[in-house]
Specification:
Helix content: 40-55%
Strand content: 15-25%
Shape: globular
CATH class of the largest domain: Alpha Beta
Distance between the termini: 9 Å
Radius of gyration: 17 Å
Number of strands: 8
Number of domains: 2
CATH topology of the largest domain: Rossmann fold
CATH architecture of the largest domain: 3-Layer(aba) Sandwich
Order of helices and strands: EHEHHEHEHEHEHHEHEH
Length: 223
């Protein structure tokens, strides 16, 4: 049985993604690595610090030593660290939002990126540009920060969070071909929109990222 490690920075995400993995690839054994300090430090410092890079490298190396066939990083804020960590191991180290970025580039030229955290907005916007470059395409990325949404959610006010995100999606949809959600937590807001309010396609990373992981694992030789 092949094994997939998932590296998370929020404590509630493992249960959600493990359930999705079980549905998409029941033949794969999954286990979770959770370190909330990585995202907290990125938010507080406003950048990815050397400690974050070292911690992620340590987790990736450990996952390989534990016999994982691949590792999926589920946090967009720390995804730039993946490119460094990948050089340290032989197993694939995947970004959950990479498949989403690829699909967005295929769907349009004007691509909106929505986030509630600057630490996530910038890496996701950069990833879309990078994936477009690899496909030989020129795209216009329009990043939008939902100011106040993260603070509302953190203070126990999900209704305000959802309203801020909903308004941002509706407004941005008037000027782009496709929207990508920089955080998986916003997917439920997109799902709650009426069809008339979904002016353009809205992509989220979990399903696309897990399907990409399944494809990668299918191409990995059994140990």
């Amino acid at each position: 049985m092949k094994k997939l490690a998932l590296l998370h920075t929020v404590v509630w995400l493992p249960k959600v993604l493990q359930r999705m993995c079980a549905e998409v690839m029941p033949e794969v054994r999954t286990y979770n690595i959770v370190d909330e300090s990585l995202l907290q430090e990125a938010i507080e410092r406003g950048e990815l610090t050397p400690r974050i890079y070292r911690a992620i490298a340590d987790y990736v190396v450990a996952a390989e030593e534990w016999g994982s066939d691949a590792l999926l990083v589920t946090c967009s804020s720390i995804s730039p660290c993946v490119d460094v960590a990948q050089k340290l191991v032989a197993i694939p180290v995947l970004k959950i939002d990479e498949a989403m970025a690829d699909e967005a580039v295929e769907m349009g030229v004007n691509i909106g990126v929505v986030a509630t955290l600057p630490s996530t907005l910038n890496p996701t916007s950069a990833l879309v540009q990078e994936r477009a470059r690899l496909q030989g395409k020129d795209v216009n990325v329009k990043p939008v920060l939902c100011e106040g949404a993260f603070e509302a959610a953190s203070s126990g006010d999900p209704l305000t969070h959802d309203q801020i995100v909903r308004e941002a999606l509706q407004e941005l949809g008037r000027s782009v071909d496709v929207i990508v959600l920089a955080q998986a937590s916003m997917a439920r807001v997109a799902d709650s929109l009426d069809e008339k309010d979904k002016v353009v396609p809205i992509l989220s990373s979990p399903t696309l990222g897990i399907n990409r992981a399944k494809q990668v694992l299918e191409g990995v030789e059994s140990k």
